[in-house]
Amino acid sequence: MSEASSGSRQAPGPGDRALTRGAGFAVLAFAAVLWVWIIPWQVDASGTGWMRPRTLPLICAAGLGIGGALLAVVPAGLTDLRPRAHLKAAGLLVIAAVAVWAMARWGFLWVAPVLAAALVAILRERRPLWIAATVIGVPGAIWLAVVELLGRSLP
Amino acid sequence: MPPLDSVLAGFADAFTLFNLLFVVAGVAMGQLVGAIPGIGPVMAMAIAIPFTFTLDTLPAVSFLVGIMKGGLFGGAIPAVLINTPGTPDAAATTFDGHPLAAKGKPLKATKMALYSSVTGDAFSDMVLILASAPIAVIALKLGPVEVCALMIFAFAVIAGLVGDSLIKGLIAALLGLLLATVQLDPEQATPRFDFGYFQLYDGVNLVAVAVGMLAVAEIVRRMAEHDGRPQPAAVPQSEEPGARGVSWREYWGCRWTMLRGALIGTGLGALPGLGSTAAAFMSYASAKRGDPGGVPFGEGNLRGIAATESANSAVMGANLIPLLGIGIPGSVSAALLISAFVIHGIQPGPLMFRTQPELVYGIFGAMLMANLCNLIVGQLSLRAWSAAVKAPASFIFPAALIFCIAGVYLSSGGLFGVSIMLIAAAVSLTLTAVGIPVIVLLITFFLGRRFETSLSQALTILDGDPRALTAHPVALILLVGALATGVWMARRR
């Protein structure tokens, strides 16, 4: 809610309309890039019959273009943007992405406890029992279940 | 209708000790995650799906069905105890559940929620068992043109009903279809949108996208909004007589309320796009209107609890009617079941009644068993789940995220799938921020490949001439219906 909106509101406010309009332009731009650049680059133009490889992607691009334009002109509906929370969520996803990259190099068993410790610290947990349960217990339980019980490997 | 021996064989497959164990485990897990505010059965299903692919199809689906059913009741526990619904569909349960608990009767309130949840669920399961086979018979008579028109109609209804803007719904539907085109073209087998990654030749991994959009996005959103405050304390239990349980007289006194709730839940659940939250609120409003007197609604009326819980639980069984009857999921949990089926190489839909009737009736048997287990596990474990309400966010969310990483790694066979999961989570957060419904995207993504194939077949049959649709009146009616739905939704808003 663009600090602008909340789940309980029924009617969109000016913040919602501005954000929706921006989203409409973004969808329109995406559709244009899709039509002009991505589809010709990534989808084969060959083929016969009514449905060629490009047919459905082009239909989607056209539909998205029309939808985006309509949204930009007639911004309707509520939004749910909370800048601080969304920035923090993006930061958490970056941490998870770094952990996934690290798992490829050093393995799940070493990286998962570090990831858990980082998240526990971000959530400001100070009780030793809960910290131990999250940092050691959870990765350990997953390792036991996957490697020992299911006989599968982890990264 | 499938032959009777297949029906009996299916039920026999379900009623085995091995399968019962998975149902009990699923129900217990569902009740536990439902009781923990912030997790919920949909997220739990998304996390559990990758772990089920080592199982046979029936135990895997039974486990997931157990999670869903257990979670529907589990959400009522924190709603009653701490006035915080564990799942969105239990929001209306707080209206009378928490006031009753505040009077020193939390056990009575949670037990009423349990009994009415099981009653509503059992009703909708019976409707599912009786209705889906005849619907499947009709669906199997539809040709590619009709199937394509039916999918367009379903997309229009889902895009119109989910969220608060038809345009945003349609954008979500198109994004889902576009995502489904990332794979080898079904006709020419040429790669599309692979960007040099051979892993995309088979398409974007269903489970990675579902877990990313539903579970990981919700986990990071909850972590980002967490303010470090502990959960509020649960209300204490009074020792006065009648405060701990629900008598037969009290249960029977709510029978019409529960029946009405079950009817509302089943009706709404059978329609794609309408969820259990809408059913619970509608049932509550209906029960309030027909209140015969006694304890006022909002002050701990048992009928208020019965109305909401019977309705939201009845949605689950009914959600499977469109999935099994016509192959279109009615909700996100039904859509998640598609990915479970796909992992096991099964295309859910009406053809299952012809090709795998034992499995279909095995699932029905597992659903009935899950109902009974819900009642027994709920009765025995209420105190344990009440303690789970107090589990801190600092444990729940990091644990859930690590489970997601491990689960998607297992199901997608590598860290590429985990990367897709994180990208899907980022996309989900962005779309949700601007009000574009992710659920619509997921449902059309799950159905995308089938839609492209049926569109291709339909265009070949019609030879690309729209006038040829006059020879397919059912398809024409469905397409007009889709258009009318769009116009109606647009005018309504």
TrEMBL record, chain A:
Domain of life: Bacteria
Residues annotated as transmembrane: 21-43, 55-78, 90-123, 129-150
Alphabetically ordered keywords of this record: Membrane, Transmembrane, Transmembrane helix
Domain DUF1468: 23-155
Pfam families: TctB
Keyword Chaperone tagged: no
InterPro entries: DUF1468
Record-given protein name: Tripartite tricarboxylate transporter TctB family protein
TrEMBL record, chain B:
Keyword set, alphabetical order: Membrane, Transmembrane, Transmembrane helix
One Pfam family hit: TctA
Keyword Membrane: yes
Superkingdom per UniProt: Bacteria
Signal peptide: none
Membrane-traversing stretches: 7-29, 35-53, 60-82, 122-140, 147-180, 200-220, 320-347, 359-377, 389-410, 416-447, 468-490
Coiled-coil segments on the chain, per record: none
Span of domain DUF112: 20-442
Record protein name field: Tripartite tricarboxylate transporter permease
Lineage: Bacteria, Pseudomonadati, Pseudomonadota, Alphaproteobacteria, Rhodobacterales
